[in-house]
Queue: 2 jobs
Job 1
Amino acid sequence: MEAKTRANDPALLILTSLSSGPKHGYALLQDIAGFARVQLGPGTLYGAIGRLETRGLIEALEPQGRTRPYGLTESGGDALAAMLEELRTIIDVGTSRLKRPARLTHAGASA
Amino acid sequence: MNERQARLLLRLYPRAWRARYGEELLALLTELGEDEPIAARMRRDVVRAGLGERLRAAGFGAGAPPAMRARSGALLVLCAWMLFAVAGARVQKFSEHWQGATPQSARGVPAVAFDVLEGAAVLGGVLVLAGVALALPRALAYIRSGGWRVVRRAVLRASALTAVAIGATAALAVWAQQIDTAQRNGASSAYSGAFVLCALLLVGALAAWTTVAVSLARGLELSSRVLRLEALLAGAICASMLAVTLATATWWGALGRVAPWVLHGAAGGSPSSSFALSLFLPSALMAVATCFAALGAITSLRAARLILK
């Protein structure tokens, strides 16, 4: 079975953050903490950046001192859209099931 | 975290990774540390990610090609075998003359376990040699076509260490001839120290040659057929290591029940504990090495299945 996208997947968070424009490491962490309330570790961030760059989903831009901003590539945009679609399916299924009355009320009894 | 500490943490990452992302990660750590001290959770994250990058660079990442994973898994089994051989040599030394100190009537289960131990150890050694022989033609071709430059330093280091280890062992053997049994068995601290030094040199030489084998194997272009065979051999070596480990535990347990004094070199029939630290440590090392071998064999065999497809 193919691995499914998780909402706190560092790759998804980085791609989402870069969809609003190029950012360097510190700005990425700040942005992700702001919109997802997830505090990525520095090692996790650069590990994911390395893999995304290898896959051609992001690209490094001109260095600014010791830091280097990253931007979303076209295939990165496509990959982000596919990930979001995958999440949307889960959200839709979960939302529609919540609307049904068959939910447990207490101690395993069905309402 | 100051720059020096951050640079120290960066050493955990592979060199190629450091060359590409090291300065950026360093800049980020510096920036994060400007507002408040970097939390322990962040430091752990950098350490964990660094070790993960090392594993990925060694071919254990999910994204690595199956051929690379098959080879890396087999190499992990080889390294685990080296560790296992060191621990096994200590168990072998410990178990010398156990039959003579154990009454004939009590030898049943320990003798069977010991036979299994010896048989599986020999089988494992033969399988390791078969794995080396299988890759040898490609290794020689690689050395002739420029690979020598890659492994030259490692080969020279291993050769020098081996020469020193052999020389030291020969000198120790001459010394052993000139002292009595009690001195050889611990009464002479100078001899004991020299013995430990020799053992460390031999372990170092073995480790150095394993490093040569790993450096060589990383540069080889092995065919799918050879990789599949190497993966199967890795699985068989792991099985033999498991058999040796279990047989050692069985031998120890059975001997501890019927003749525990043997485990302490005490006089026959004297009350003794069935626990012996000098047997526990190498046995634990053998178990750890077997776990690493299992990890390598599983990685290699899974990747080999993908190569088959």
Job 2
Amino acid sequence: MHWDAPEDAAVRAATDTPEVKLLARERTRSIEEALAALPDSQREVIVLHKVEGLSFPEIAEALDDKVEAVKSRAFRGYRALRRILEAEGSGR
Amino acid sequence: MISCAQAESDLLDVVGRAGEPSGDLSAHLAGCAGCREAWDDITFAARTLDDLEPVAVPHAVAAPVHRRIVAELERRSRSRVELPLALGFGLLAAALSLAMLGFRFDLAERPGWALASGAVAWAAMFVLAFWLLLHRKGGAGVPRLVASGLGAAGLFMVADHLLPLTNVVQFCYRSSWANEHLGVLGLQGVYFVVGAGYALVPLFLLSMATGSRQGTALRSGLVAGGMFFFLLAPAIFIQCSAFTAGALIAWLGGAVVGSTVGGVAGYWIYQRRHAAAT
């Protein structure tokens, strides 16, 4: 059985409020929308890299592309993602 | 000093391992405003994505990516075996088909170059046919289909060598019993019936023995039957060269019906037996 340390329980109590949950859900939704707004070729590389945790050589292998081409798509994708997130006002 | 292009590439590697720029990259960033801005953008976006829990990636975003990866891996896995399999099956089928021709046709008088080029073209045709079959069907169940088609062709060769179909037809005309019971069919009818039997029995047995649960019995049986008929047709042409066009057409028609019915019935029984067993 796992017992929470008292400080963990206190943190969880503070972050489990309906308001915090609502804000987190809203933030997740806006990130998803920003991802969905990217071109397919950039989105798939970023999802594989940042969400699935694949390295660039692994992504290149999976997509049958060159590593540098994949990196170029990721570079443009990450920069575009920041612009979209800032436009939505959901950056950190 | 590294170039901006190299710096961009290195920045992505640093982000991937959640590290900080160092060495040449750090020095480049200190002196290049454009790359510093890019680094800010990339780390901003990457840290924002860190807030996403794995389950938070919407299905609509992740599913197409996964589908594409799976399709790509399957395509590459298939393409690695398609050509060797097509070559193997094609050469085997060509050898079998040429053996069928050789039994009935004196090839000794033909010039060597003509025989060689004919054999190459014949083999290429079979290799292409098998490659198309493997490519279109995705490889699943194809080796079993090919085994049933080629096996049936081998069985047909043995049967037709030991008891030539033309002898059976002649027996039907000479035997009073057979003449009484089959004579109503006429010569062409007898060719049709016996030709259907010679095609049906081998393919039925082989399809039942090497069947597959992949695909429907109708589709698998038709593919195996088509392949079998493709192998049979030259032998039928050669054997019928001395007879009338009616006999040839009747035998070919019988072979088509026998191949189709034998293949479909064999696959159907295999799948029924397998379904009952599981």
